[in-house]
UniProtKB/TrEMBL annotation:
The protein's name in its UniProt record: Anoctamin
Keyword Magnesium in annotation: no
Chain residue ranges for the region called Disordered: 1-32
Gene Ontology MF term list: chloride channel activity; protein dimerization activity
UniProt keyword Transmembrane helix present: yes
Length: 889
C-alpha cells in the first residue's frame, strides 16, 4: 500500500537555528486571539481544517483520526482548538504547521524555484518625463516587496547553494500553503491494512462532510498593520494601496498580489489591468467619433429633410402593421433620425476599422506583457504537466475500471470509450436543448415586438392636443417597442443564465473529466458558448435580420404565415442602427450594473450574517477567516467569463455604439477595485496556484477578435445607412454638386393605396384626421422598387442592385484591409520582447556557471577532507526521489 512518508530520518545538512531551539525553550503562554501561530507563539499556522460533531460522528471521527495520523506520518505538526474555545461553541479547528524538513522535501518534489543569488542584471533605463506618471505610482516597497534574485529549482542535496538566511521566512506563506495543500490532497484516510487506495485527499473529506472547511489564513486584519514582527502585513498593504476605491487611479501592486495570492490570481489581475489600460485608447477614439457626430449635427441634410414640414411633413408613409397601424408622416421620426446620426456617420466607418486593429494590438501586446511576467515571476520553464497528471477525486471515485498509465507506470482509473461516448452525447443534447431554448425565448421577444408595436401605434397615433402630440413625437412606437423589448430580453437573459450555470456544472460533472485543467476547459467552452448565444442573439437579430425580410405593401412577409397577422418588423427610415444601439446599451449596461452589485453586496451580506453574533474581543484569526466566503476553484472562471462577455460587446457590435469602450472602461476601473476588495476583505485566502497564462480564454479572445471584423463589416454594410447614402451621393445625385439633398425622396418607393389588401388596410378608428383619401392616393415605403404603372412595377430597380453590390464590395474591402493590417501587426510585434529573451538567456547562462562553480568548490572541499569523512548509511532505497508518497524517503 502506498502511504504517507515519515520524515523522522530526513537528514538536515544545516545546523539547528533559533527556530528549533525556540520550540524547545518556549513555554506555554496565553495565546493572542488574532495570532497566526500555534500556542507556543513560534510555529506558524499554514493551514486550517474545521469540523463539527454530528449524528454521523463515529464514522467521521474514524476518518479524521486516520487522516490526521497519516498527516503526522508525513511530518506535519497539528494542534486542535476545541469547540469549547471557539466562538460558536460547536466548531473544532485543526491547525497545521509544516516544519522545515517537510517544506524542503516537497519543495524539491514540486521543483519550486528559490533564490540563490541576488540579480546583477540592470533594469531598463528610466522613461523620459517619468515625473508625469508619479501620481499613479505606488511606493517601491509595495511594488517590489522583495529584491530580484536569480532562482533555481530547489534541490535538497544543495541546500547551502541557496540564499537561506532564515528558515522561518525562506518559504513565503503562499508557498507554504501550496505545499501543505499538496500533502492534504494526497493523504489517505484509511488504515494501512486496507487496500483502498482511492480513499484519500481533503477534497473527498470535504465532500462527505468529514471536514467543513479547509483554508490557509490571512496574515492579519486588513484595516490595521500587524504588530507582530514575525508576521507580515501584506494584507494590510494590499487593502491600503490596492483594494480601496480611492486608489482607482493607481497602478496595481502585481508583485505583491503574486506573492500573497500566487501566480494564477496575479495573472488575472495583470490581464484585467492591461485590458483596462488598452480600453482607454479605444474609449478616447470612440469619444472622438461621437464628438464628430455631434459637431456635424447641423450638416445632416437627411435629418433636416425628414424634419422639414414641406418635405418630411408631406410624405405619407404606408402602415407599419396590419389593421391597428395607419398612415403616418415621415417627420414623426424626426428625433430618431437625429439620434441615429450621432452613431451613423462617416466617423463610424473609421472607428469600426480602428477597433479591428485595436483588438489585434491588445492581444499582441498582452502576449508581450505576459512573457515579461513569466520571466519576472519565474514561470518561463513552468509546465502544467503536474496539474495534468493529478487526477480529480471525483474521477477516481466514479471510474472503477483501471489501466496502466504509460507515464507513471502505475494502475489508474479510466473511463471506457462506450461510457464516455454516451456521456458526451447526453451532454451535447443538453447543450443543444438549452441553446434552442434561448432561440425560442428570442423568438418570443420578437413576437412581443410584433404584437405590441400595433398596440403602441394605436395609443400614440397623432392627437389634436399639442401636449400629447409632443409626447408622441418624443416617444415613438418604434422606440417604446425597442426599449421595452430590450428590458424583457435582459430579464430573460439573466434568468436563463442563472439556471444554465447550474446545468453546465451538472453536465460537466456528468462527463467526469480526468483532471481539474480538463474540467475547467470543458466548463469554459460550455459556458461561453451558452453565454455567447444568450447575450448576443438579440443583438444579432436587430443587426442582421430585422427589416431585411419585410417585403412590400401588398406582398408583406409574415412570421408564422399570412393569417398570423404578425408581420415582420421594418426599420425606421433612419435605419435599424439606433435600435441596435438601444439594445446594446441596455443589455451591456444592465449586465455590468447587476454584476457589480452582486459581486459587492452578496459577499458582504453573507459575511455579516455569519459574523453577526461573534464576540469581537475573543474572535480568533481562524474564526474570522472561517466566517468569510470560500473562494472556490472556479472563482476566477466567473471573473474571466464576465470580462470576456464584455469584450464581445465592445468588439462585435462597436460600430453601432462608439461609446461602448467608454462604458467598459468605467466599469473596469470599478471592477478592478471591487474584485480586489472582495479578495482582500470578503474571501478566505485562496490556496496559491501557478499559471503562466490566462488559459483557454486566450483562444476565445482570438476567435472573438476575428469574428468582430466580420460583424462590424456587415453592420456598416447592412444595418447602417452609410452605403446607400454614398451610392446616392456619387452615382444618383441629380445635380452637378454632390450633396445629400433629395436623398430621402430617392430612398422611398411608392405604392398605390388602392392596391393594399383588405387584411392590411387600416381600421376606420386608426386612420388619423389629417388623412384624406380623396387626394392622398399613394404611400411611401423604404425600398428601391419601381412605382405603380411601370412595366416592372414593384420589382427592384437597378439602384437596389448597385447598392447591394456596393455593400458586398465594402464588406470584402473592409475585411481584407483590416485582416491584412491585423496579420501584419501580429507579424511585426514579437510575442516575447527581445530584452526578455536576452535576460532569459543571460540568466540561464549565469545559473549554469554558478552551479558549475558550486559543484567544483564542493568537490574540492570533499577531496581535501576525504580522510575524515565517513560514508553515511542510506536511509531509503527508493529509486524515484520524486515519489514523495512512496513507503520510504
Amino acid at each position: 500500500m502506498i502511504g504517507m512518508p515519515s520524515l523522522e530520518h530526513v537528514q538536515d545538512p544545516l545546523p539547528p537555528n533559533s527556530y528549533s531551539s525556540n520550540i524547545r525553550q518556549t513555554t506555554q503562554k496565553k495565546q493572542n486571539k488574532d495570532t497566526v501561530f500555534f500556542r507556543d507563539g513560534v510555529r506558524r499556522i499554514d493551514f486550517i481544517l474545521s469540523y463539527l460533531d454530528d449524528k454521523d460522528g463515529e464514522k467521521k471521527q474514524e476518518r479524521r483520526r486516520e487522516f490526521e495520523a497519516n498527516l503526522k506520518k508525513a511530518g506535519l505538526e497539528l494542534e486542535t482548538e476545541y469547540k469549547s474555545d471557539s466562538d460558536d461553541l460547536k466548531t473544532y479547528f485543526l491547525k497545521i504547521h509544516a516544519p522545515w524538513e517537510v517544506l524542503a522535501t516537497y519543495a524539491d518534489v514540486l521543483k519550486i524555484k528559490v533564490p540563490f543569488k541576488e540579480s546583477d542584471i540592470p533594469h531598463g533605463q528610466d522613461v523620459p518625463l517619468e515625473w508625469l506618471s508619479r501620481p499613479f505610482r505606488l511606493p517601491g516597497k509595495v511594488m517590489r516587496p522583495q529584491p530580484d534574485y536569480f532562482t533555481s529549482p530547489f534541490d535538497k542535496d544543495k541546500i547551502d547553494f541557496f540564499l537561506i538566511k532564515n528558515r522561518d521566512t525562506f518559504f513565503p506563506p503562499s508557498t507554504r500553503n501550496r505545499i501543505v495543500y499538496y500533502i492534504l490532497s494526497r493523504c489517505p484516510y484509511h488504515k494501512e491494512d486496507r487496500k483502498e487506495t482511492d480513499k484519500k485527499g481533503i477534497k473527498r473529506l470535504l465532500n462527505n462532510g468529514t471536514y467543513t472547511s479547509a483554508f490557509p489564513l490571512h496574515d492579519c486584519r486588513y484595516w490595521e498593520r500587524n504588530t507582530n514582527k514575525q508576521c507580515e502585513s501584506e494584507r494590510y498593504h494590499l487593502y491600503k494601496n490596492w483594494a480601496r476605491f480611492l486608489c482607482f487611479y493607481k497602478e496595481q501592486p502585481l508583485n505583491l498580489i503574486r506573492k500573497y495570492y500566487g501566480e494564477k490570481i496575479g495573472i488575472y489581475f495583470a490581464w484585467l489591468g492591461f485590458y483596462t489600460e488598452m480600453l482607454f485608447f479605444a474609449a478616447v477614439m470612440g469619444v472622438i467619433c461621437f464628438t464628430y457626430g455631434v459637431l456635424s449635427y447641423d450638416d445632416n441634410l437627411t435629418s433636416k429633410e425628414i424634419c422639414d414640414p414641406s418635405i418630411g411633413g408631406s410624405i405619407v408613409m404606408c402602415p407599419l402593421c396590419d389593421k391597428k397601424c395607419s398612415y403616418w408622416k415621415l417627420n414623426s421620426t424626426c428625433l430618431s433620425s437625429w439620434q441615429s446620426h450621432l452613431f451613423d456617420n462617416e466617423g463610424t466607418v473609421f472607428f469600426a476599422m480602428f477597433m479591428g486593429i485595436w483588438v489585434t494590438l491588445f492581444l499582441e501586446f498582452w502576449k508581450r506583457r505576459q512573457a515579461q511576467l513569466e520571466y519576472e515571476w519565474d514561470l518561463v520553464d513552468f509546465e502544467e504537466e503536474q496539474q495534468q497528471l493529478q487526477i480529480r477525486p471525483e474521477f477516481e471515485t466514479k471510474c472503477t475500471d483501471q489501466r496502466l498509465n504509460r507515464i507513471t507506470q502505475e494502475m489508474e482509473p479510466y473511463l471506457p470509450l462506450p461510457k464516455k461516448c454516451g456521456r458526451f452525447c447526453l451532454s451535447g443534447v443538453t447543450v443543444l436543448f438549452w441553446m434552442l431554448l434561448i432561440v425560442a425565448c428570442i423568438t418570443g421577444v420578437i413576437v412581443y415586438r410584433l404584437a405590441v408595436y400595433a398596440a403602441f401605434a394605436s395609443i400614440m397615433k397623432d392627437s389634436p392636443t399639442k401636449k400629447i402630440h409632443l409626447v408622441g413625437s418624443l416617444i415613438t412606437p418604434q422606440l417604446a417597442t425597442s426599449v421595452t423589448a430590450s428590458f424583457i430580453n435582459f430579464v430573460i437573459i439573466m434568468i436563463l443564465n442563472f439556471f444554465y450555470e447550474r446545468v453546465a456544472i451538472w453536465i460537466t460533472d456528468m462527463e467526469i473529466p480526468k483532471t481539474h485543467l480538463e474540467y475547467e476547459n470543458k466548463l469554459t467552452m460550455k459556458m461561453f458558448l451558452f453565454q455567447f448565444v444568450n447575450y448576443y442573439s438579440s443583438c444579432f437579430y436587430v443587426a442582421f435580420f430585422k427589416g431585411k425580410f419585410v417585403g412590400y405593401p401588398g406582398n408583406y412577409t409574415y412570421m408564422f404565415g399570412k393569417y398570423s397577422r404578425l408581420r415582420n418588423e421594418e426599420c425606421d427610415p433612419g435605419g435599424c442602427l439606433i435600435e441596435l444601439t438601444t439594445q446594446l446599451v441596455i443589455v451591456m449596461t444592465g449586465k455590468q450594473v447587476c454584476g457589480n452589485i452582486q459581486e459587492a453586496l452578496l459577499p458582504l451580506l453573507r459575511n455579516w450574517w455569519c459574523s453577526r453574533k461573534a464576540r469581537k474581543d475573543q474572535y480568533s484569526r481562524w474564526e474570522q477567516d472561517h466566517d468569510l466566503q470560500n473562494f472556490s476553484q472556479l472563482g476566477l472562471f466567473y471573473e474571466y467569463l464576465e470580462m470576456v462577455i464584455q469584450f464581445g460587446f465592445i468588439t462585435l457590435f462597436v460600430a453601432s455604439f462608439p461609446l461602448a469602450p467608454l462604458l467598459a472602461l468605467c466599469n473596469n476601473i470599478l471592477e478592478v477595485r471591487v474584485d480586489s476588495w472582495k479578495f482582500t476583505t470578503q474571501f478566505r485566502r485562496p490556496v496559491a496556484a501557478k499559471a503562466h497564462n490566462i488559459g483557454a480564454w486566450q483562444e476565445i479572445l482570438n476567435v472573438v477578435a476575428i469574428l468582430s471584423v466580420v460583424t462590424n463589416a456587415f453592420i456598416m454594410a447592412f444595418t447602417s445607412d452609410m452605403i446607400p447614402r454614398l451610392v446616392y451621393l456619387y452615382a444618383y445625385h441629380p445635380g452637378s454638386e454632390a450633396t445629400m439633398s433629395g436623398y430621402i425622396n430617392n430612398s422611398l418607393s411608392v405604392y398605390d393605396i388602392s392596391q393594399i389588401p383588405l387584411l392590411s388596410t387600416p381600421e376606420e378608428g386608426a386612420i388619423p384626421a389629417w388623412f384624406n383619401s380623396s387626394f392622398i392616393t399613394t404611400c411611401r415605403y423604404r425600398d428601391y422598387r419601381y412605382p405603380p404603372g411601370h412595366q416592372r412595377q414593384y420589382s427592384h430597380t437597378m439602384q437596389f442592385w448597385h447598392i447591394l453590390a456596393a455593400k458586398l464590395a465594402f464588406i470584402i474591402i473592409m475585411e481584407h484591409v483590416v485582416f491584412v493590417v491585423k496579420f501584419f501587426v501580429a507579424w511585426l510585434i514579437p510575442d516575447v520582447p527581445s530584452e526578455v529573451k536576452a535576460r532569459i538567456k543571460r540568466e540561464r547562462y549565469l545559473i549554469q556557471e554558478y552551479l558549475h562553480n558550486y559543484e567544483v568548490e564542493k568537490l574540492k572541499i570533499q577531496l581535501s577532507q576525504s580522510f575524515i569523512i565517513e560514508p553515511k548509511p542510506e536511509v531509503c532505497t527508493a529509486t524515484d526521489k520524486h515519489d514523495v508518497l512512496s513507503e520510504c524517503l
